[in-house]
Amino acid sequence: MSADTKKRVLIVANELSPYLEFTDFAQILNKLAIKTFDAGLEVRVIMPRFGIINERRHRLHEVVRLSGINVIIDKDDYPLIIKVASLPNARLQVYFMDNDDYFKRKSVFRDDQDNFFEDNAERMIFFCKSALETVKKFGWPPHVIHCHGWMTSLIPLYLKTAYKKEPVFSYSKTIFTAQQPQFSEILNDQFTRKAMISNEIKEKDLEVFKEGTNMALTLGASKYADVVVFGEDNLDPQIVEEVKPSRYKKVLKYEDSWKEDITPLLDLYKSLTES
């Protein structure tokens, strides 16, 4: 496979083993990234640089050539710091989106009193926009963008609206991993307004997200993704009901065997790069 014809897969995730693990899918994504690379596809991974990720142990370092990106959220500028590490036992790179306001704290989604951070909505918007701006900066057009975790929920929407005219995404197909809700709180009431990062996004586009629950994020991401992967067995019936397979939407049901054999997911990647 020549460099010109190489297929490119971008994984954008909340979690990835060994950096951070919330669910079993963190290890599945690790195996999937490595197997995809071994199959001859180009792979890059983007995730948040949560403060609990040990930079020294995992050998993160800042990517100076990608510096200078400012991410605007609700007219405020937030400097984006991009760090990178090599995935252990693999020759592929993981890029970490960092910002002192949103990711310096030494916890993930909750404070030390177990309170859900009030700015988790803004952190999600920052991360989703940062990931897409970083790909633009790469000049690296992905054939497949696999979004995993609730913090990636806005990416399928953004690709269909704010970024739909960007050449780097002109043939990108999106996958979203649907899972059980991981928080019971509601995002702050400014969420959908701040999520409108471009004039290309209309209020009606965010209708499905407006309740600000984890379920609403899952249903919204699933609506705009090209393919939905059920990331767990026995998903909430509402997700199963809403995300029915149709001629417009491909659904890949969870298999416990993925923990050992991720071939069905790799085959999904391959099929999307060829369509």
TrEMBL record:
Bilayer-crossing regions: none
Keyword Transit peptide: no
Domain Starch synthase catalytic: start-end pairs: 8-230
Primary enzyme class: transferase
Entry-linked PANTHER family: ALPHA AMYLASE DOMAIN-CONTAINING PROTEIN, GRANULE-BOUND STARCH SYNTHASE 1, CHLOROPLASTIC/AMYLOPLASTIC
UniProt-recorded name of the protein: starch synthase
Molecular-function GO terms, alphabetical: alpha-1,4-glucan glucosyltransferase (ADP-glucose donor) activity
Lineage: Bacteria, Pseudomonadati, Bacteroidota, Chitinophagia, Chitinophagales
Keywords: Glycosyltransferase, Transferase
Keyword Transferase: yes
Catalytic activity as recorded in UniProt: [(1->4)-alpha-D-glucosyl](n) + ADP-alpha-D-glucose = [(1->4)-alpha-D-glucosyl](n+1) + ADP + H(+)
The protein's Enzyme Commission number: 2.4.1.21
SUPFAM superfamilies the record matches: UDP-Glycosyltransferase/glycogen phosphorylase
Family matches, as Gene3D superfamilies: Glycogen Phosphorylase B
